[in-house]
Amino acid sequence: MSLAPRAVLVHRTTEYEELVARHGTHGQAAFFLSSRGRDIEEVAERHRRTRRAMAEVTAAIPLIWRQTRVERADLDRFLFAPEDVVVVVGQDGLVANVAKYLAGQPVVGIDTDPGRNPGVLVRHRPADARLLLPSVFAAGTGTDGLTMVEAVADDTQRLLALNEIYLGAAGHQTARYRLGLDDDGGAVEAQASSGVLVGTGTGATGWIRSVWQERGGGDGGDRGPRLPGPTEDRLVWFVREAWPSPATGTSLVAGELAAGGRLTLTVESERLIAFGDGIESDAVELTWGQRVRVGRAETALRLVG
């Protein structure tokens, strides 16, 4: 007999909980904020909305399902199972945080603070869960396969991300490396820069988009690659603040990667890192001479529409 589905509720500690944990009590946290011209009630109300959303979603889980909860800080230690339905209750970024730990499980994003969150990935309200969760496995329930990006080092270290992967120096100082494209006839350029970003269409709403706009991508001109959509196989990449010198160039600073394309970076610094979706604490470390290849991942995120 197959196992009943398990609802895994993914959440994060609220700002209010972090404040109280730091200052000891509600009163001390309120005094700390008031001394800086802030009112704790705003933060406390967001906390209450999140808790109400968690309660409403929990009550909507079918009785025959199993259920558990996992906090964002514990994701790297949590074992997801094939029969899981992952219910992310919180912000868009929380969906990105959990994506790299999944292997095709459906994800339902619940927005706890509509109007404050963009709602790109947390597309549903808590009240939707009552009808949505029981129908996740129904034939008519639509899911979007959101493209993901991966970095694979020559020592088999592998990193997945939903938005973007950053390669560069820890602390964002100058990184030295050699950059090349698999489909560019073997051309390689030595560079010194603030790092390299390789992103997806989902990431095109965040960090990647800000770099693209700085390059003039939003002015209607032809300045760099066109940003992809979330389900497109295409990726885009940008070199941040490339520095020209007699030993380093700036001719390879932006481009696209088709479905099978790979960007190759060979480390020429004592230590570089690669991390995904802004989580620097979960980074791949690279040393002098190592090579890492970045491109579209075979895995996609199944986001319930």
Describe this structure in words.
By secondary structure, the protein is an alpha+beta fold. It has 6 helices and 16 strands. The strands form 2 sheets. Strands 1, 2, 3, 4, 5, 6, 8, 9, 13 and 16 form a 10-stranded mixed beta sheet that branches. Strands 12-11-10-7-14-15 form a 6-stranded antiparallel beta sheet, covered by helices on one side. α1 packs across α2. The longest helix is centred in the first third of the chain and has 21 residues. The model has no long low-confidence stretch (mean pLDDT 92).
Describe the protein's topology:
Elements: E1 6-11, H1 15-23, H2 26-34, H3 40-60, E2 66-71, E3 84-90, H4 92-99, E4 106-111, H5 129-132, E5 143-153, E6 158-161, E7 164-168, E8 175-181, E9 188-193, E10 196-199, H6 207-214, E11 235-239, E12 254-257, E13 262-267, E14 271-276, E15 284-287, E16 291-304
Parallel strand pairs: 1-2, 1-3, 3-4, 4-16
Antiparallel strand pairs: 5-6, 5-16, 7-10, 7-14, 8-9, 8-13, 10-11, 11-12, 13-16, 14-15
Helix pairs in contact: 1-2
